[in-house]
# Entry
Amino acid sequence: MALFLDTSALVKLYVPEAGSAEVERLADADPVIHVGSLAEHEFLSAILRRVRLSQMSSSEASTSLEEFRGWLLARANTVQFGPPVSDRARDLLERHHFAGLRLLDAIQLACCLAVPGAEMVLADRALARVAEAEGVVTRIVG
# Structure
């Protein structure tokens, strides 16, 4: 089984919230896990947002970031954002802009589509609808 974890699901591995247990269970089942090359940047942004909103301390954020980077190196296959993925993201934006598809979500979906047969795990229902329209099997967590 190949899973593509969107950042909305990745954060749940390090921040206890609705859907965290399900993402942990999926990751612990030892599937082949793929992430987009922007996942680390999006993860950092999500964690820093929680610090800014006083939902997480700076020390907790540092620990989460360190653990996440280790997990990325040990467990995840990274899909690079290069010309084929970039072209696909542009195409997705053009075709799904009325559905509210955002740039980073288009990039994540294009990365997922680069992994044949990958199931996309995410918490973003709007992105899930677009992914499903593209033929991707999705699993919404949280």
User: Anything to note?
Assistant: Helices lie at 7-10, 20-28, 39-52, 58-75, 83-96, 103-113, 125-133. The mean pLDDT is 96. Residues 2-38+75-140 form a domain with the Rossmann fold fold (CATH 3.40.50.1010). The CA atoms of residues 7 and 84 lie 21 Å apart.
